[in-house]
């Protein structure tokens, strides 16, 4: 995946910060185990499709 443009507009009530980071840094940035699990599942599916992040 590559960043193509646009602005990040986090919901202030729910998100402390939003930023674009390389795929290998995502797990270090996520706070909740549920979010890390969702990310890992998404990456597994992308790898099966041979899409490189």
Automatic annotation (TrEMBL):
Any GO MF annotation of the entry: hydrolase activity
Gene3D superfamilies from the UniProt entry: Nucleoside Triphosphate Pyrophosphohydrolase
Entry keyword set: Hydrolase
Name assigned to this protein: Nudix hydrolase
């Amino acid at each position: 995946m590559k960043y193509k443009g646009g602005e990040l507009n986090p919901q202030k009530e729910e998100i402390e910060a939003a930023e674009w980071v390389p795929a290998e840094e995502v797990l270090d940035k996520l706070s909740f185990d549920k979010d890390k699990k969702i990310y890992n599942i998404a990456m597994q599916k992308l790898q099966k499709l041979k899409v490189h992040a």
